[in-house]
Amino acid sequence: MPKVASQKSYSLPASHLLLALAIVAVWGTNFVVIKLSLASFSPFLFAALRYTFAFLPLALFFPMPKVSWVNLCTYGVAVGVGQFGILYFAIDGRISPGLASLVIQTQVFFTIGFAMFFAKERLRTYQTIAVLVAMTGLVIIALHTDASTTVLGLALVVFSGFSWGIANTVSRRAGSINMLSYVVWASAFTIPPLFALSYVFEGGWGQMSASLFAAPMGAWAGVLWQSWANTLFGYGAWAWLLSKHPAAVVAPAPLLVPIFGMGAAAYFLAEPLPPWKIEAAGLVIAGLIVNLFWPSIELKIRRYFS
């Protein structure tokens, strides 16, 4: 396994790249599931249910990982409340699911920035270019707010990306541990604040219990998809990848999420795909391609001319 500290001509092994693609496919199509489930559950209640089922019953079978309570709590609150609680709140009428899947990729910039500050990872020239290209696509989105995508919605999803960046950084500092166990036990710190937010801002116990009893089976299926496919598989495998590779190499992989997110939103929710959306997504994906594949391309070029 390549050392995390070395980034010269660094690229992901094929098996790890395929795992990253599977993760982003789940994450991308997940935005449609979120939108559909929010018709039955309020945002913070939905997030609380997601992490309740991520924690139970698996906590009975997985021992708590050997990591500090502070680390577990920080990761749980960052990813559960800061990322998904706020993301659900934004998708609930403040931004379209397809665009949310694209805007949340600001996590890449935050993750790389935190890695540079805390882990002293060096940002190479091609990575700087990749970030700037992807950021241009996000700027295009910011210039096209309308009734379905508000400035508040954009700001909330950018904050979700910031929280995701924090979670990425914290999980990397957890070291070599069982990442599935890590995600399960971190969920315990997510549940209380999310239920508290739902109680305060979403109508108290009366409204919460009414939603629970009235929700159809499809909405509960959405909760389980969020808990098991998105949280346990997606974030467990993602935290494992981050523990094995430099953040600047792994973090841009979710830039593929918008392809699945915007495609699924267009197919299942009839979300329009005007030219500016395609242009913005193209720029974001171009940044991903530069960041992920330039090291191997550069190596082949050098070998060819040597």
Q: Can you characterise this structure?
A:
With 306 residues, the chain is mainly α. It has one domain (14-305). The protein is built from 14 helices and no strands. The protein has helices at 14-37, 43-55, 69-91, 97-103, 107-118, 125-142, 151-173, 179-186, 191-201, 204-214, 217-244, 247-250, 257-269, 275-305. Helix 6 runs antiparallel to helix 14. The protein starts with 13 loop residues before the first helix and ends with a helix.
Task: Summarize the SSE layout with pairings.
Layout: H1 14-37, H2 43-55, H3 69-91, H4 97-103, H5 107-118, H6 125-142, H7 151-173, H8 179-186, H9 191-201, H10 204-214, H11 217-244, H12 247-250, H13 257-269, H14 275-305
Helix pairs in contact: 1-4, 1-11, 1-13, 2-3, 2-9, 2-11, 3-7, 3-8, 4-13, 5-7, 6-14, 7-11, 8-11
**What's the gyration radius in Å?**
19 Å
Helix content: over 70%
Q: How far apart, in Å, are the first and last alpha carbons?
A: 27 Å
Number of helices: 14
- Counting structural domains, the number is 1
The biggest sheet, with number of strands, parallel, antiparallel or mixed sense and barrel status, is: none
Q: Structural class from helices and strands?
A: mainly alpha
What is the total tally of β strands?
0
**Helix-strand pattern, N to C?**
HHHHHHHHHHHHHH
Mean model confidence by pLDDT: 86
In percent, how much strand structure appears in the residues?
under 5%
Uncertain runs are: 1-7
